Amino acid sequence: MKHRATAALAALSLLGMGTTLVSCGGGGGGGDAAGPPADAALRAQGRQIFRNDTFGDEIFWTDTLRINEPIEQAVTPRVALSVGLKVDSDALPPAVADAIRNGTANLDSTATTLALIKADAVVGVRGTVQTVAGVERLTRVGVTCALCHSTVDNSLAPGIGRRLDGWANGDLNPGAIIALSPALDAAKKAVYNSWGKGRYDPRFNIDGLSKPAVIPPAFGLAGVHSITFTGDGRDIAYWNRYVAVTQMGGQGTFTEPRLNISITNGTQDLVSSKLPALQAYQLSLRAPEPPAGSFDAAAAARGRDLFAGAGRCATCHTGGNFTDANVRLHPPADSMAEPEVPSYAARSATKLYRTTPLRGNWQHAPYFHDGSAADQEAVVATYNARMGLGLSAQDILDLAQYLRSL
Predict the structure, then answer these.
(1) Is 70 exceeded by the pLDDT of residue 258?
(2) More exposed terminus of the chain, fewer Cβ within 10 Å: N or C?
């Protein structure tokens, strides 16, 4: 059976890239890794693709979902920020940046939204704004990888600042954005609106079930081969292709015999040639170091011993990336989020889970693929209870501090 992408979103859901995309220009602890000039050129090309390339998905977002209509009619900057969209301060004209800084910018006008889109300042959104009969209109709109896997440092205002590529946008409410579409019926809108911020289901439009997972970051994946929560692909390019075609609606083909999926959008391939550069850029994104003073160093030192000993964490969270994903995947019973209905693993190609890398975990709460653990203390407490580890209350606090230090 062949599935067609209906309503979905660009969660470059390296979903569980698991980590759940930090930029060269964005600061905040990420950037290109050192490498030969040819690699640097490839990464630069990949950054451009990651930030700006829609793979031709305007056909889906404009012609099918008609999402441009509610944007130009009702989405003011204040509304956009409330559903987690971010604004790149480096793309703002100086006068606009000054107006935001001094509080005189009109954040309750859709005209301001169109101006931001026209300046390519809305992270992950690409649009064409044209004057039609003397009125500014949003005639085409599409999305990019950065929509879900970038945020900003809030240096200008909340939700407005310099880009942080690779950071999970935990504020983003993809379901609420999709639900704006006038092409969807009430039942589908209700499902999308039920997901909430920071969550996305990359299978809903495939199997009709709804079990959203946490949007993961896409940093710290160099050397990690199984890059999704369920380890479906051996490299990032697999999931990039899946999301570009089946979720973003990009022009190209994705085939997965294990899930009986074969989807082709359009008659030209705007995806395949971009995958090598896109992957090179993503692999250069390092996990950000924890902010100074964000964890208790003495407690973290005690927690490190627990991690390797009584906590039994190092059994699976091995090596420099703190994951055994390169050597094995785990049965659903090993997941602290299972049993769940529907099972996220059961809907995947492997029917298994991979161990999530831990570098930079301070940045992307909540935890577990379903977001059921609000913080590191909740993670450790869950393992302690489910596995009968016998950790004391102090042990749980110390181990949580160690996790924050990674």
Answers:
(1) yes
(2) N
Contacts of 404 (CB under 8 A, 6+ apart): 290, 294, 295, 300, 361, 362, 376
Beta pairing partners, 262:
255
Quick check: 124 and 57 in contact, CB under 8 A? no
For residue 106, the tally of other CB atoms under 10 A from its CB is 13
Structure token digits, residue 115? 């101006």
Q: Which of 109, 116, 36 is nearest to 78 (CA)?
A: 109
The pLDDT assigned to 154 comes to 97
- Longest CA pairwise span in the chain (Å): 71
Contact 359, 220 (CB under 8 A): yes
Range list of β-strands (E), 35-117: 87-88
| Alpha-helical runs (H) found in 65-218 | 68-74, 77-82, 94-102, 110-118, 146-149, 174-178, 186-194, 204-207
**Tokens standing for 113?**
């939204």
Which amino acid, one-letter code, is at 11? A
**How do residues 38-52 score in pLDDT, each as one tens digit?**
699 999 999 999 999
Quote the pLDDT of residue 28.
37
Structure tokens at 80: 């956009």
Mean confidence (pLDDT) of the chain: 91
pLDDT at 30 over 50: no
* Range 98-105, long-range pairs (CB < 8 A, 24+ positions): 100/156, 100/157, 100/160, 101/156, 101/157, 105/77
Distance CA 181, CA 7 (A): 9
Q: Phi, psi at residue 254, to the nearest 5°?
A: -130, 130
Q: Count of residues for the chain?
A: 406
Distances 325 to 19, 97, 235, 380, 403 between C-alpha atoms, Å: 12, 44, 12, 20, 18
